[in-house]
Amino acid sequence: MNHTKSEQLFERSKRCIPGGVNSPVRAYRAVGRNPVFIERACGSKIYDVDGNGYIDYVCSWGPCILGHCDKEIIDAVKDACDRGLTFGAPTEAECALAELIRGCIPSMEMSRLVSSGTEAVMSAVRVARGYTRRDKIIKFEGCYHGHSDGLLVKAGSGALTQSAPDSAGVPADYAKNTLVARYNDEASVRSLFEANRGQIAAVLVEPVAANMGVVLPKDGFLEFLRDVTKTNGALLIFDEVITGFRLGLGGAQEYFGVTPDLTTLGKIVGGGMPVGAYGGRKEIMETVAPRGCVYQAGTLSGNPLTTAAGIAAIRRLCAGGKALYQELDRKGRYLADTVKTAFGEKAQVNRAGSLLSVFFAANPVTDYETAVRSDTREYARYFNYLLDHGIYTAPSQFEAMFVSAAHTQEDLEKTAEIIRQFVRES
Ligand SMILES: *Cc1c(COP(=O)(O)O)cnc(C)c1O
């Protein structure tokens, strides 16, 4: 495979963009090579500037659950383009999208659209604080909630492989109201509540952690969070930026049957356009300005192209219904089984539906500590082999693999063959 143009573009980009990329994980540092520059994508495939094609399991980090260039989404966006890119005034499409969200995720009685997942979580936390009139929040080690100041504490993902989990430029004063518990560890949550009685506004959690690799909540963990927040007058916030519309139309809250007070969305809900959304019970969301006293605004929030893409994507998912998600689950299971069989004891596979991770670890991965014990060098070897053989996976041990509706059985079988070949040649 030739990567000449990608190499040249990377050199050129490094001169005018920090690290040559607009988001750190794209730089491939964790896998010891330079990134490929992408020119176009279609269905399950992505093509780089040197003309190499790959079966894509990054799917833009989740949004492309229907594959790339889904015709209905593209047509909806083109149509919206012709009517104007932005108005800074309310539109019917924003209302239609909020109704669709509520239809799929009933706990989001009211919601607000913003332009990124970062903004959605930052705003939801502000609402929780405004509503409860308390300052502290609990988050979990290894969970990522975007790059807002107060949440860049033990944040997994890009922050994890850069080995700088706490970013420079975040005053200690901002982070001091962010308490960190261990994922899947009830005692760590209980003791934070005991030490900070009457001060905790919310517990913020990825109901399936997907930014330290995929880590599933153990049985009863989400139910415990529901109970402990309720008992202590705190709100429960599910960050469903990845899991929303991924684990099913109703997201993780439907999948596990646990209802949070506030939910954040992003990625899929924008159909591939920049997006975030947060919402919850009417009584809580009515604290948001101009109804209430919590300020949150955005010039491009509810942008017409985003709402067009989001509505088209959700309508497609709704039309596909249970059958579509069963099929995604089947594909996810096929890949998980392939990897388990190929690697045996050497690897752990964590999976929820079409969201999965391969950890090169000997023991089950259940939290941050067990995740970081993985052999990242082996992951880098695996990643590089797959990339060189036309399979595009996440360039980090601590990111998820995403399967889309566009992946065909042929794609999966080819992927399985390359993985088995990697093991044979190792
Ligand atoms: C991606 C992600 C975010 C941040 O969303 P951006 O759109 O990248 O700002 C927040 N929370 C979770 C769980 C995510 O996966």
Please supply descriptive tags for the structure shown above.
single chain; 426 residues; alpha/beta; Aspartate Aminotransferase, domain 1; Aspartate Aminotransferase, domain 2; 2 domains; 7-stranded mixed beta sheet; 4-stranded mixed beta sheet; binds pyridoxal-5'-phosphate
What can you tell me about this protein's structure?
There is one protein chain. This protein has 426 residues and is α/β, with parallel strands linked by helices. 39% of the residues lie in helices and 15% in strands. It has helices at 4-16, 71-82, 92-104, 117-132, 157-161, 172-175, 186-195, 221-231, 251-256, 282-285, 304-343, 368-371, 376-388, 409-425; strands at 38-42, 45-48, 53-56, 110-114, 136-140, 178-181, 200-205, 235-239, 262-266, 276-280, 348-352, 355-359, 391-392, 401-402. Helix 3 packs parallel to helix 11. The radius of gyration is 21 Å and the shape is globular. The two termini are 20 Å apart. Pyridoxal-5'-phosphate (PLP) is lined by residues 116-118, 121, 144-146, 206, 210-211, 239, 241-242, 266, 276.
